[in-house]
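Duplicate of earlier report; Fpg/Nei family DNA glycosylase input re-posted below.
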Amino acid sequence: MPELPEVQALVDFLAGRMVGQVVTDVELGSIAVLKTYAPPPDALVGSPVDGVARHGKFVDVDVDGTHLVFHLARAGWLRWYDEVPATRVRPGKSPIALRVRLDDGSGFDLTEAGTKKGLAAYVVTDPAAVPGIASLGPDPLAEQFDEEAFASLLAGRRTQVKGVLRDQSVLAGVGNAYSDEVLHAARLSPFALAASLTPEQVGELYRALRTTLEAAVLAASGKPAAELKDAKRAGMNVHGRTGEPCPVCGDSVHEVAFADSSLQYCPTCQTGGKPLADRRTSRFLK
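Output:
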């Protein structure tokens, strides 16, 4: 799943290619991907792209005041074309859920692999009308998001810090992969309770959050959309690296698997050398 750094790189990539171009066509390959009915997708046709922005993990393409907003979810992605294929999208016949054509011949497809569909697109006059955007917490890279603001988000939360970092209503843009990376950098157990963290641990976690995301944004910057997934994997220290040596201490990276996801961590760096039980009912580590 693309998270804040990849979505920001994707936004920058699209802005450099779309701003000033006119939308000439919007084709739907999946009716289910479109979560709104008014304005219709045709409302985008004939108007110029004024800007591209990010809201958490949402991409917002501003087409003369009408916004095409999309969320790539777990298996969605964007395929850019300098020259869009002339063939029309056939609904239900390919992984293409939505295609946008521009007046210089370029454009993109939104695609989704697998049977579990989560890709979502919205056509709105105000991005805040998208429920997922309206409920977003603060952006962790916003200039005004300081350590005090972060501490206030954690205060009193008797939930695991891993879940707090991933909760989009608490913090916008961080998902499963970067929450693993942030916690590893902060030397914290993913099952530590947010409310139990000392002020020193909160400060360390805040610095790890900012530096990890800033480094990932920098690493993704300037890369074409097709390279962002591989760049994300290459930058991970623990996430997706079960059984590999921790780059900090050399211990083997461990995993806790759940029904539809997993987390990775280093026991030596994060849990005092104690492996976490690999089942959903694991006890929280203090």
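The longest strand covers residues 49-55.

Merging into the original ticket.
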